[in-house]
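Lecture notes, unit on protein representations.

Consider one protein chain, 251 amino acids long.
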Amino acid sequence: MTTKSPPIDELKRLRRLGRKMKTLYVELDAEFVKQTDGMKLSCKPGCASCCYLLTLITLPEGVAIAEHFLADVQLRNKIPDLMRSFFQQIQHIEAGGVKAIRDSYFRKKVPCTFLDTATNRCTVYSVRPGACRYHAVVSDPEGCSPEVRGVVSKVNVLALDAALLSTANQAVGQVKLPLFIAPLPVVMLWAFKLLIEGRAAFDAGLVDPEMGVLDLMGWMERLSADEAAGEEILPPPPDAGTTVVAEDPPT
C-alpha cells in the first residue's frame, strides 16, 4: 500500500461515507433498545462467540472503522498490524457459496481482528458495524460458541437492517460507488485503501483480475447467487418487524 494521500476535497467526500454511518448508528442504537425492550437478551459484555463469525459489512461501515484509526495518531500506528491480520483471516476463506463459506470459517474458530481475546471485548465498539451492533440472541449463550454450535434463537430487527442498507446505499451513491457487501476483513482492506490511496487507486484495484477472494464484485455475485438459490444472506424487507428466529448450527 502506498503512502500517497488523495486530494483533500476527495478525502473529505470519502470520509462522509463513514460519518453518515456513525450518525445513523446513534439513531438505530436507540431504536434497537426500544424494539428489544422486554426481551431477555443473552448477550453480555465478554460474550464473544459471534466475534468468530465471518461478518458481512458494507463499504461505508468499513470506512467508518478505517476513519476511526486514521483520525488518531496512536491508532494509526496500528494499521500495519491490522492489515496483516486481515490478510491472515482471508487465508481461511474457502471457495463456495456465502453461507457455506461462513459456516466453514466459523468452525475454524478465527477471531475477529478487532476482538481483544484476552478480555473478549471489541476494540472498535463505538464504530462496530451493524451486523455486530444489532446481533442479539435470547437462547443460551453457550449454544453460540464454535465448539457447541447449538440451535440459536436470534433476534432479527428487520427495520434496522433495512435502514442501515438503505443509508449505506445512499452514501455510496453520493460518491458514485456501488453498495459493496463482503466479509469484514475484505471490506476493511478496501476501506483503508480508499481513504489512504484515494478513489483512482481503489477503482484500479477493482478491475484487477488477480484479486481472487478480495474481488468485491465477486462477493456481490456470490451474494446474488445465494439469494437466488433461496439462501437468506441479506436482510429481508422490514415488513415483518422484530422477530426471533431459531438458526440451526453449521453442518
